[in-house]
Amino acid sequence: MISRLLGFLRDVLLAAILGAGPVADAFFVAFKLPNFFRRLFAEGAFNAAFVPLFSGLLSRRGPVAAKIFAGEALSVLLWALLVLVVSMQLAMPWVMLGLAPGFAKDPAKFDLAVQFTRATFPYLLFISLVSLFSGVLNAMGRFAAAAATPILLNICLIGALLGLARLTPTPGHALAWGVAVAGVVQFLWLVTACHRAGILPRLPRPRLTPGVRRLLRIMLPAALGAGVVQLNLLIDIIIASLLPSGSVSFLYYANRINQLPLGVIGVALGTALLPLLSRQLTAGDTAGAQDSQSRAVEFCLLLTIPAAAALVVAAHPIVDGLFGRGAFTPDVVSRTAWALAAYALGLPAYVLVKVLVPGYYARGDTATPVKYAVVALFVNLALNLALMIPLAHVGIALATAISAWVNAGLLAWGLSRRGMFDFDTRLQQRLLRILAASAVMAVALELAVVGLADAFAGGEVTRATALAALVVGGLSVFALAAHLLGATNLTEFPRKLRRRG
């Protein structure tokens, strides 16, 4: 939550200083490229294979054997990343032609994108190593240090905007170098955390040991699955680059707001669920693993359905209140708000994917999610092509939302068919009540948006106050409706957390 709030502060500064022009488009593409590979190789395939293996070794043979395995994996990962980073730096102009072909018609924007990406790409090296150290800490039940690493990224980018931007040709140059520095800072932070915990892996000579070979065998299908997901995002960027200038930026700002519940809920649940399921299945507690999966889905829906409803109903005042200043003109606010509403329709699905995939990974099945992701990829591509002309950038966001629901539906069906997930009576009843409570909140928010129209048209302080009132009011209405309708008991989750703690 701290990271996301700092991320909003960062994006408020970005919106006011960069707006949605060519410099902003170039930076957002440059920032996305290393993140594509990070999610593909590090957080995606590597973590999916590494965490269950490390957790299994920890349970069966103790921390020493697990630490040795982590060191072997670290050595192979480091050298593979070095080769990738050097290769990409040399090939960057050709890579940019493939990533953002629409930029080629604007040489100045294209050159900026190449410069920015060369500065940001070393971030991949450090953040991938951060993912390994995070996996080690999470498997040991230590979540705080790893969860705090995005805070450091936001601090570095805010510092670059406020302190370095006046010394560089454009604010985009300062941000690109801020990304590179953030990777180093995050790496040193987790090295220190692992050292203090006594679980810092050594760096041996890179060798394909039996443990590393097994890791690579499991990684391959997971990499294909993560690659399909990242290819979805890549398709969105390619198509957005062909649309009018600013389209990449509209989608970025809208997705950043949509990422708040995804990052706070989805990543947290998925991160905690994978090692939990791995331990339960290693111990033969199949019923416990099934219950953990069902309750994670229930908790996910309780938080994301009302969040999606709120983002759809109040998209315009939210975007205007957060970003509507400086270079972020009313026209940019309107275009971004439409994209936010489209993205928000898929919010529960985005989070469900992160909650359901660990059910496969914890059982060593990294292939099935690939198949479902491929189906979602083709759905996304077809919808992008069908919707990009009539709906422009909003069509891209809507295609992403629909394909996410396809992916989540297939994952849930696959787990249920194998007896790994039970859409039990409690979950069915809670879902209907969550939908009802969300509908009550949506009506209340719509009335509030109309009633506060004059306040949202006022000055900075007035708009901020109106937005705060809208958020607090919406949360209060949903909490009360959920409690009265039996969607949840307000004391249930704190009590459960205390008991498990």
Concise synopsis of the structure shown:
The chain contains 21 helices and no strands. With 501 residues, the chain is an all-alpha fold.
Rg over CA atoms: 22 Å
Distance between the amino and carboxyl termini: 20 Å
Order of helices and strands: HHHHHHHHHHHHHHHHHHHHH
**How is the main sheet built?**
none
**Strand composition percent:** under 5%
Structural class call reads mainly alpha
In percent, how helical is the residue content?
Answer: over 70%
Number of strands: 0
Q: On the 0-100 scale, what is the average pLDDT?
A: 84
- Number of continuous helical runs: 21
Shape: globular
| Poorly predicted spans | none
Describe the structure.
α2 packs parallel to α5 (107-120), α3 (63-90) packs antiparallel against α6 and α11 packs parallel to α15. The protein has helices at 2-17, 22-61, 63-90, 92-99, 107-120, 123-139, 144-147, 149-164, 171-197, 210-242, 247-282, 286-313, 315-323, 330-344, 347-361, 368-391, 393-417, 425-451, 453-456, 460-485, 492-500. The protein has 21 helices and no strands. The radius of gyration is 22 Å and the shape is globular. The chain has 501 residues and is mainly α. Helix content is 84%, strand content 0%.
